[in-house]
Amino acid sequence: MSYVDPPARMPVLLRMLLWTIEKRMGRKLLANRILMWYPKAFLGSGIMEGLVAHDEPGVPRRLLALVRVYTSFLVSCPFCIDLNSRDFEKKGLSEEEIMALQGKVPLEQVDTLKVDEKAALRYVQCICRTPLSFPSQVIETLKEHFTHRGIVIIASTCAQVNFWARLIQSLGVPPAGFSAECSILNLESYTTMKR
Asked: When comparing pLDDT for 128 and 187, which is higher?
């Protein structure tokens, strides 16, 4: 399935750490196993993941969920979509909002998205675009709604998903089945993994 198979043997301490992570996530994580070929990448990625924001003053959990899901769709990463969209309703996201994050409904037409959330999502669009471009209007609007700290949290959350997307896709890791029961995600329509 992936481009690279996990190593047959792993250092004992790292194998125990991997077991703990997989137990918490409820499934085997192929990308993490593959990273065992280079333990520094496994540990560095794990540290970054462990420090990611989940609920911070000025940047609530719901907004961070929106940022993660939107970034996953923008970079067209089936694994990331699968992981970050799991239990989206429990995170306070509606089906209409997921459809907007997929690009099926314009963000501006979704009444349940607050003005500050739309400002953050426009910023996320800029972060995910190649080449990078940050129109002054997007930044000015963002600054109206978020502190400098909040902007750093939004940017680093988006960049973290981008990091994992590039790493996971470059190794050919398929979705892990976190959201397999969720038909509105349309994971099969993301062609990044097709060879």
From this structure: 128
How is domain 61-193 classified at the architecture level of CATH? Up-down Bundle (1.20)
Q: Report which residue type is found at 45.
A: S
Of the candidates 29, 46, 17, the one whose C-alpha atom is nearest the C-alpha of residue 177 is: 29
Q: How far apart are CA 56 and CA 131, in angstroms?
A: 29
The residue extents of the domains of the chain are 12-50, 61-193
What residue type is 64 in one-letter code? Answer: L
In degrees rounded to 5, what are phi and psi of residue 59?
-140, 85
Q: Which of 55, 33, 56 is nearest to 45 (CA)?
A: 33
Q: Is the pTM of this model over 0.70?
A: yes
Q: Where are the alpha helices (DSSP H) in the chain?
A: 12-25, 30-34, 39-50, 61-74, 78-85, 95-101, 115-128, 136-145, 148-170
- DSSP label at 46? H
